[in-house]
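Internal ticket #5521
Category: modeling
Description: The requester needs a full-assembly model to guide mutagenesis choices. All entity lines are attached below as received. Residue total reported by intake: 974.
Assigned to: D.W.
Attached entities:
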Amino acid sequence: MDPTAKKSRVYNSRVIRTQINDPAFLAPSKGPPPTAAQLRKSLAKGISSQQNQQLPQQSRLVVPELLAARDFEVRALESAMVSSKTSGASRVFQSLPRSLRRRTASHNVRRIPKRMRKKALREMGIVTKNPLVAVVSTTKGVGSTGKPVNPKLGRGRKRWTLLRRIKLLNYASKWKLKGKLPDSTWVSTQGSGLRDKIKALKKQLVELNDQIDNTSTDKPTTISHLHQIRYATRQRKFKWMATHIWHAKRAHMCKRWGWNIPLSPTQKCYRNTSRSARIRGAVAFDTSYYSSLAVNCPLDKIDELSNYMRIITDNKFDITKNTNKSWSGFIYNSTEPIGNVLIVSIQSQDQLQLLLTLHPSIYDSFLEQIIKDFFESTISIDDCKYSLGSIELTGPKSLTALQSIIHPCLPNSDFMNLHKISDLTTIPNTVFTFSVSDPRHSTKPILPTNPKLSYDEQLDLLISLKKQPQLNNGLLSSENRNESYKNQQSLKQLGKRKYNYPGESIPVTSKDPKIPIMIIKRGQNWIVQMPWFWILPFWYTLVHVPHVQFGGLKQYEQLQYERKLISWSDMVFTPTGFVQCELERTENQKKWIKRPVSKRVNYTKVKISNGEKGELLSPFGLDWRGLQVLRLVTKVTDNKTPLPLQTIDEDFQIKSLSNIQPIVTAISSTEQQLRDSHQQQLILKHKPITIIPQNYSNPFKFNIIDMPPLQISPVILSSVGMGNIKPNARIYSVPVGCGETWKTISTGESTGISGQNLKMVTTDNYSTQLPQLHDLIGLVTNGSFNLVDGKCTCIGYIDSQMIANYVLVRNIASSVFTIMDVQKCKYQ
Amino acid sequence: MKESNRIINGKRLIKHAPLRPYRHNELDTTVYIQSKTPFISAVKRIEKMLINFENIPNKRGNLIRRGNIDMNCNYITVKGMGKAISKVINIGMKFKFDEKFNVDFFTKSVGVLDEFVKEEEEEEEDDDSDLQKRNVGGVEIRIYVN
């Protein structure tokens, strides 16, 4: 359809209406010629007098004359219609790009950019263009010019309390100054006057705000604050990242793992994030909450370190193979994976250094452990939790964006030669280390200059990146980081320098700091590691690159999900992940109980299949223990495995599959009893599940403590036809003997009576083909509509013995089964 | 269980896309065709792009174009290589004869990278993989708006 059709229809209707009212179209008047008064009246209507005089005599329409006379009017009308259509329809803040708009509190003029404030005030009826019209009212702390008004001193009692408080404060500060300084060092009162003390105080305050590298060797770093001293009390329990204030204005924050972390932007961004990461633009994350530690190993101790690394990574990380490279994988506690790690190893002349970046949920415990393990060795551990920060970038523009804010001190680095490459999978996993200059020297992001490499040379460069390059360990030393802070310019200082070079970037001098950075390419992401106090300047410049948007924790997980990789919240097999599952479950249950009975789903009475009623496993979250027991009982009745259930009463005989329901109910009530008697620790300690080793050998094993853990495999399910699967949906195997029916349904061969697609089948149609309770083999951890595939996909875990090509999935409290395709999921 | 990539001499082959620099202006005027792109989808995508070439008045009454299309740009580029060549040419023919557009055809060759990964050691993908260069034939068509 023509996009301007609507507009042109409006135009035409208005033109026709004006023509109808036009006297030029009317019948000739039969009466006497118009009087002077009548002529005046018609003149006022905007009709030319000449035509009016002629009309009664001629009584005929002269088209060319009419058109010539009306040409200007019609044009004016058309342009007025275009402008009037939009003039009243939008407020000034709506003319900002969507990402800069703040719809909430849009009445607050101070939230609108200064250049637009006057217009905003006019729109609110507070200031008018006409000076004669009085100002109607005022708005929040803003004068008629849009500048903030100084708060008035109160009157009466208020004024009196204020004055008294000032006096008291003066008194108190003098009293304090007699004795000590803010860091509670006592100074002698003799020999120094008040003026000297104030001087000392000011100096100390400046020092406290100074940026020093917060690294401690062989012990965890303890610091009072990371941000300016005035925010110290707010970050006692949960520290702020360098970009906290920037993020707090634009995103919902959450408090986790000792950090204040951006959860997701306040703006709606589900589709936008997906598209930016795949098609246009880039998505940036401040991932400084991922903490790092550096292991410094003398060359003669490499064997010791190598052995240690083999043990903690379950023989997967080999130092000799991975020198000057990055490696990502899992950290193990004996054979159980506890969390993700990214390792970069750098060999220099006198030592080998490892930089380990871990998820904050496991960092503290891991640090404690590694310090203890190397306590007597010459290998030293630097805790860089508060001294190294990182920014992660993904999307086709990510490399271009990085290259436009990074200005290497020495030219011709390999990184800059990868000119603007948009495809993230082509560039192999590599590490670049070099020094760069302050990004704020340029007024805006500068697009990288073309290195003038031929296409063939570019391909050769990519192949050469596979080899082990020489890496610089500048970022890993505390002195170097401190050195880079030394001459860090404030915005004010930079502004003064910029004054001499209007419109161009400030030339770099030898005094300017050289910032050591490390750029790691991992999977489809670029990770930039840099000294903590350089994160903010780089972040500010990065978000000013066009088409770069930021994301929070949720967006990070969304992109992992769309790339079919498991993210932290999917790692239910790690101890912290399992605790998270249990927490979410109890929280959901609490919320459900609080609701009135009539307003909540009665999960015990929901019809599921074949007259079966009620959700057996917990409907509030992932009930792994229920699944474990269910699978166990099923296997026992199938006579596949011996009976390992010492925990169940001996006189309780498992004879048939009909016993499943009471046993699963029993385990959930046992769990509830433990919770009621405050023994949650027991539940959390013995995980009901273990992840199967990647090579799928030895598929079933028991290590009985209370119950044999169920071995599960991560799988990616994608729906064959329609259907939307949500987290905590149940995964069933296709019932024995019914495979053919479900296959024909999945291929679309069999249809319903009215010819509709039968890929989603309800209970009524296929009652005999539906899975039974004992066919339940797994649970979905994350599922929704996948924008990449254009259909529903989900990540889940199923009993590793029961992997098949197709499974049936059912949402909680629903009786609809969806057939889904199974794909293996790599978790490393 | 599906295995997405081919195995040659015990090594899994991962095909990489040709290198192309990121240009934001190109996004609304260029279509890349894969061998698995459905023909009709590609045609519809191009038709939608053509609509955006129309000049419309903005708030101030000046003529502009939607999206990122430059006012001087007057053609849509469609690119494809290897197995997709015939599909791209078919698209060109459709727009030339069915829709009566002016269409130009260009041939080219593109360098790509092939990665061979040892099948057993899937975890250590980066260590034991080789990259090899290969040239692929390609075709580019331009569909002119005016």
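Resolution: model delivered.
Comment from assignee: Residues 7 and 40 of chain B are 32 Å apart (CA to CA).
Ticket closed.
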